[in-house]
Amino acid sequence: MIYITGDCHQDFERFNLDVFPEQKEMTKDDCVIICGDFGGVWNRNEESSREAKLMDWLENRSFTTLFVDGNHENFDRLYAYPVEKWHGGKVHKIRPSVIHLMRGQVFEIDGKSIFAFGGASSHDIAGGILEPDDPDFKKKKKELDRGWYPYRINHVSWWKQELPSEEEMQEGIENLAAHDNKVDFIVTHCCASSTQTLLGGGLYKTDILTEYHEKIRQNTSFKKWFFGHYHDNRNVNMEEILIYEQMIRIW
């Protein structure tokens, strides 16, 4: 079985047995994929006791938890995990069965091919990105807090790696080409530029990643494309599905 769900932000209540009873019939060969903003690797320098308990709790579920990264992840720590090969693609293993699907990889799971590509632009940074070593950091933070302006702090609550590198994007193109640009499913955090326009009607800005996804959309044959980020549940069209708190079985 393969299930899919949206952003968690370190809240894994939906994986409780009473909310997700289907797990009674699942094994570690079955998986649930999270479409970014996993949030389980977040504390600044090391795994906190809360994170450890949450990751151990997920590890003890009957299924395997997979996730692409979103824009709200601690990339300093996430990218520090050893790179391993799993089901045909590169991963970071947070626990043996809590696994980060790295960008631009194609995974073969239960006979289905899945192209994974995390990342997105943060929308909640109207107040800007603060540098913690800025001499005026406390003053700027106080002013933003007083005005209720949303902001992020570099390497504390925001990382430039929320958007992909050229190497990650190129690797994705090469891996798709190796599969004749044909996969069963695509799993991302944000979506293609044209899809985003349908969602927001101009509310969301395009960026290097939505344009990259647009290129993938135009040149890849796929059955379904699942993405999160926009905090809604919506069938954008027959192929592209925005998912948030739902748990959908896709295989």
What would your notes on this structure say?
The protein has helices at residues 49-59, 75-78, 137-146, 166-178, 193-200, 208-219; strands at 2-5, 31-35, 64-68, 83-86, 89-95, 98-101, 105-109, 112-117, 129-130, 152-153, 185-188, 224-227, 234-235, 240-242, 248-249. 23% of the residues lie in helices and 24% in strands. The chain has 251 residues and is of the alpha/beta class. The termini are close together. The protein has a seven-stranded mixed sheet with strand order 4-5-6-3-2-1-15. Strands 7-8-11-12-14-13 form a six-stranded mixed sheet. It has a two-stranded parallel sheet with strand order 9-10.
Number of helices: 6
Report the strand count. Answer: 15
**What strand order characterises the main sheet?**
4-5-6-3-2-1-15
Main sheet summary: 7 strands, mixed
